[in-house]
Known about the structure:
By secondary structure, the chain is an alpha+beta fold. Helices cover 27% and strands 37% of the residues. The strands form two sheets. The protein has a five-stranded mixed sheet, with no helix packed on it. It has a three-stranded antiparallel sheet with strand order 2-8-5, with no helix packed on it.
Amino acid sequence: MKPNKLWRTMLFNWPVKVFSLLLAISLYLVVNYATLDQRTVEIPLHVILPDTFVATSTVPESVTLKIKADERYIGMVDSTAIKATVDYSMVDTEGVSSAPVVLVAQPSFFDIEISFSTDPETIKVYFQKSELPAQVEANQELGGITL
Length: 147
């Protein structure tokens, strides 16, 4: 077969070949991702607050955990083994601070493809300077007598 004839064979009727390729890719994606199932669970949120600031806005006590996995295995995922934490210990100014929710999951005994996400993914909290050190100093000056 000559190179010229090879190119002619490859380029002949190319719209049908492109359509067939796109159809095969879409079929693969549908079959691959149609078996994924999603489960939502409320889990407690551990919040680490800064020492010198006080949170004046509400801080959520829980977040919604979204678990995506194969429908055969999603029931085996233990949601109590997943911990959610948000860390504000690095806050150094007054105002609104946002921090991402970090998930830590204990390793499991089976090897499956699984994804975790939270709603909300980041949490915003308004912080003000803490007045606690001034109160402690006033109590120390009065000899520990509280009025």
